[in-house]
């Protein structure tokens, strides 16, 4: 794989490397095909450069508004036919054939590489499969997969082996499954036993003897087929299985593995390169192809949906023969419109040989939505057409005699017309409209069509984000903007989470649009933003729109354990669907989310208001925007009530953190929902005054008077009324600051960020969570932390080689995940710029992270002004490039030729920690006690996550902060206070030169300090209140001196914040410290929640999975829970340079004695020694101490911001189950402290 390094040149720079992403090997297991689109229709382009493929990520050909249905509340978008097919072949085979995995006698053949029909498709959302995926959909009686197998030398009796998964199909069925198999002979019924535990990640083998007749063998090849018999309505006809691979082998033999074919050369290809040009939207693929017969040719493809005409698609192939063995052997080019990519449809085919045209019309079940593709083929050769009467592709071929050294170009001009484009929904009309598009483009020629499309893309790229200082980040930003633009246009459609890249989440429209994608569109493309909002505005009616939803809201009644219809408002209220489809009715398959996840109504209203702010379009507000905002406000009036406390409340909702309800329990007073409702009412009141309407008195009465739950001890916003600190799915309460701009203190905003950022599940949370955290960190002035979140929000979620977002770090349901792309882009539009829209100007509060040189946002739009924002470390310049003057609130006015320059915000001291008092550093490594301690085996104990290497003391106003940094990644799998696994003690000797008589440390440590200590600051994730051992500051006699707040930042900084008043008359710059890292446990496993280190020899595997071993004792059931207390339970301590951990941490009667380390009053902090990945007991823990009492910058080297992520997916990550069905188990596991990481997104529709 090779990806270009993209720099920061302007959009006028034509250097290809600035705008291209490429790969040179699609077979290396890291290839994810990309897509391109024009906002109306799109194509995912496989490794072969065109056509349909089920490999890796199956190709998809989405069309806006192409929804099928079973009812008006069960609509889902499906793909259309593959319109890009333009295969090249000689008499021995095709260019496409070179990309298939080997299928030979004696070895497994990957079924996804076969011919799939009858609704079969390739999947990869379960684990354990071979090759690029498996085949699903055999429950249809018409489902059939066919493979062509080579190397069969003679007729005979063979074994046909099938590798399959037969998990629980969702109804608890334990039926044996059945498929029909054949190897060129009669079909045989093959019984497939179900998987005992119902898992779809467990694969079994089934074998059946088949007779291969001589008549079935042609040139050593045999056709293998596997067909379905039914969907289980009859238990004897149940084919609900996934099939991974099949093999034909000698009787009794085991199949060999499929040959890897991991390089282009193994596929008879050389000089392979596939490139996405983000500037033009073109995907090009080039390779030198050697056919089976030995012909050699350079093949170069271009696929381009025109941006100038959103009904036009272009596919070109240029073939240059290098070696052509027989002059009379023709080159055959096949233009196809392939139904394999379509489903839930019927088809009409037509052709015109004289005009070199073929046409395929797709009519969807249920809705009657209709789309016609017409392909006109240009190129030399003799034409032949086929497929008019078949059920697969319709094709036309050109056969041309060729000469070596000459290039031959073939182009298909594809016109698309749907019933959106015609006055009547008929095959004749859509065919005529599509024909006109194709013919007009063909008459003007390929070059003209490409030039027009390039110009349209160039206009869009006047809006750009330029970054200097990080080429990879630049490429990721441009890729995200490209994919977003490829899925939106000026038609009134709203993007689904995967846009036009696939039909993920049924192509439904969620809050993803208005909250995550839309803000990144309105900033530079207000006309497209307006069209997206029109999708909502067109679906307000009381018969099938948002007004209907308000009057017909189904909510869970716990008393009757059933869904009950409730009506809100008098018909003027609007409730937007959690999942929107072709109409405006709720499309959520789970009533619970449709009826309870109602914050989306406020999210929609906010977007409508922000469009007015960004454009100042009063006429639009009067005609379109106000009725949406007012209807949303009326809904909140009807849905809220006044409590006895005088505040307004909203009960029984699902917050953005969908795990909080788990499809079973609505939450009262969701902070996000209540703030969003309150803000909507305020917006509606303001909008009414602008359009000359009388605001509803109830809006003003409620606005600003909703109950927002608080945790006064922690000074945080509670996610909902009874929130108890449990783990969360994604950003929720943190979003009060952005995008809702809730009136709250910076301290509250910071506390919310620090608290909830550690509650988010590492593997299951979508990327937008880190995006919000980045924006909020930037708002707080913590610029380097903001960049840390930026890196987390992108790299860990992107798949190569084309920088496409997945929904979760481990994959997830949606790809390409445009919600993630939209959130990522907002970090630049609204995070580092500090941009906030207003009615009379914009607000800017720019800040630049230290790792970047500049950020420049070009082509921004505000109320008739087009402007750029250029941020450097020292200053920010706003330049109006066209239109009206621009008011920047509290900064001044910029106009054409009169830029506005002001100081870039200075980052908060030490990223918000305060003024540095001093720091102590020690080399990385040595997180193994005296040298023998071994990390637990469970993957949550990530490498170096106990490797304490830096301790810093800060003064921040009224607080002291102790910040202990590890060299690895701290996870919080059980969503405890900041962390789950680590526990820290910081012993403080206020007189650094006092007695060195050994003094007992806190019980459970098994250590002493080498002198009396006056205080101990404890970071205990399990207990925040109570006696010594819990989190807090304690005196040596056990008295609690002060409470402390515990948080973890950037997954490496353990932060204890303690009131400065607790350290009466103590000069911490002159104190001595003894800092210990230990492992946290439940109270029944260790004294003061300190987990004992046990012997590896006596510990069972289950013990070693969760405990450090390498000590002396074994586990006991009573205190001290360890049969030998002579060995310290300290994993790593910061020690003086001259002291070896192997000496002071070795077992000792009465406990080891650990020395203190001082913060020297030096002005220059020494850098941390270069980390050594191999622990060394001889040198680990030696400290270099320094300080800067005057607040001098700490130059201690920081570990890379790139977090380590686990590559091993959890069992839950592989199941693909709807979380609603396993929520109770999830809660139970989390409560029990079981590691649960990747869980399917809760809103997933089951289709």
From TrEMBL:
Residues 1-22, 1164-1209 are annotated as: Disordered. Residues 1171-1197 have a biased composition (Low complexity). InterPro entries: 6-hairpin_glycosidase_sf, 6hp_glycosidase-like_sf, CBM6, Gal_mutarotase_sf_dom, Galactose-bd-like_sf, GH65_N, Glucodextran_C, Glyco_hydro_65_C. Pfam families: Glucodextran_C, Glyco_hydro_65C, Glyco_hydro_65m, Glyco_hydro_65N. Keywords: Glycosidase, Hydrolase, Membrane, Transmembrane, Transmembrane helix. Residues 11-22, 1198-1208 have a biased composition (Polar residues). The keyword Glycoprotein does not apply. Residues 107-249 form the CBM6 domain. The chain crosses the membrane at residues 1216-1239. The keyword Ribosomal protein does not apply. This is Glucodextranase DOMON-like domain-containing protein.
